[in-house]
Amino acid sequence: MFSFLHKKNRPKNVWVIQGLFLWVSYGFAGLLYLRFFQQQISFWEFFFAEGFFTVLLLIFLLLNRSFSSRRNILIGFALTALAFALLFLPFSRALFYMYVIVRGFGSIIFYVAYNIEYFALTPENKRLEHMTWYWIIPTVVLAVAPLAGAFLLSRFSFFWFVMAAFVVLAIGVWFVLSAVSPHVTRYTPHEALTHLRGLRLLTAIDGALNKVMKAGIPVFALLYIQTEWEYGKFLSLVAVVSVFVSLAIARHSDKIQKRAVFLWPLAILTGCITAFFYFVDSFLSFFLLTIFLQALTVMTEPIRANIMQDVKKNEPLNWISREIYLNIGRAIFFFIIVLFLRFDMAKEVFLFFAFLNIIFPFMVWSKKVYAAH
């Protein structure tokens, strides 16, 4: 009856777990930017809350001593459910910060454990293709989930929106209990901080760039969008693009084993497209640039993220150490944005995004990561 839970289907079941988690933690949660904005939360507060949570998370990762694949994935689901439950309380700024912190912890605790599980199942000769699927799964989910969430909010009520989130998370928990191993990875702060020697700065920049499309663009889209249904359509349409193109690039890159061939033009082009946001003065131009940026992001992120796998042997500690440096980059990224916004330099934020994209391949070259390419 439940043959799909057989051990041979474990990789596919792990993909399902990621999809279900992302349905709520990004697909539904992304719509809440608009809800908070309507509650008078300003742009700089969005980014300050994210930065504050990231600092707390870094402290946790350094004080923590172990990650259990099954236990921590379940904790990620539980914290995400708790974050949504908090939204039934009367709104206040304190509640907003509590929501960001709880949901953020749930997301990162989930992803550290999930990454260990997912990449343990990755064949050596298909690393970038699997990394691309790792990014495509959220792209596919985010093409549907925001529309579904916006429909619930606009046609029914916030109560049913949250109830639907609980149902999706409950299904995810069932898959976790059935498909994820109880493997435990133990580490010390010294091991985590030194494990990625040579890749730490690159990983920090990658962490910052990862938040351009996940936080930067969705927040700034609120300048042009007023309703949940419009916002859901925007998020879904942006997510639709580039899935097949990025997978084709991944397969070709795995075949010829030359990531740098793609990294240079994609990173520089992404930087140039991002810089054009500085000149945007209408929703149409913002939307079209966002489509182009999403297309390039879906193609570039797997190549950036795969650098560690090209250089390091696949070990569980890789993903713990990587998460620390990703979040160092994200914390700096968020607080720099807060400074820009506090000095009324909102458009200059996009030039900062562009700069990070353009310098990344130069940093890869300076580190001689792909010296033979």
Structure commentary:
- The chain is mostly helical and 373 residues long.
- It has one domain (8-366): Growth Hormone, Chain: A (Up-down Bundle), CATH 1.20.1250.20.
- It has helices at 10-28, 32-38, 43-63, 69-86, 93-120, 127-155, 158-179, 189-194, 200-220, 228-240, 243-256, 259-276, 283-305, 307-311, 316-342, 348-366; strands at 66-68, 184-186.
- The protein has a two-stranded antiparallel sheet.
- α1 (10-28) runs antiparallel to α7 and α10 (228-240) packs across α13.
- The radius of gyration is 20 Å and the shape is globular.
- It starts with 9 loop residues before the first helix and ends in a 7-residue tail after the last helix.
- Mean pLDDT is 86; it is low at 1-7.
Helix content: over 70%
Count up the helices.
16
N-to-C order of helices and strands: HHHEHHHHEHHHHHHHHH
Assign an overall shape. Answer: globular
Total strand count, please? Answer: 2
CATH topology: Growth Hormone, Chain: A
How far apart are the first and last residues' alpha carbons, in Å? 50 Å
Based on secondary structure, the structural category is mainly alpha
Write the layout of secondary structure elements.
Elements (H helix, E strand, L loop, with lengths): L9 H19 L3 H7 L4 H21 L2 E3 H18 L6 H28 L6 H29 L2 H22 L4 E3 L2 H6 L5 H21 L7 H13 L2 H14 L2 H18 L6 H23 L1 H5 L4 H27 L5 H19 L7
Antiparallel strand pairs: 1-2
Helix pairs in contact: 1-5, 1-6, 1-7, 3-5, 3-15, 4-5, 4-7, 5-15, 6-10, 6-11, 6-13, 9-13, 9-15, 9-16, 10-13, 11-13, 12-13, 12-16
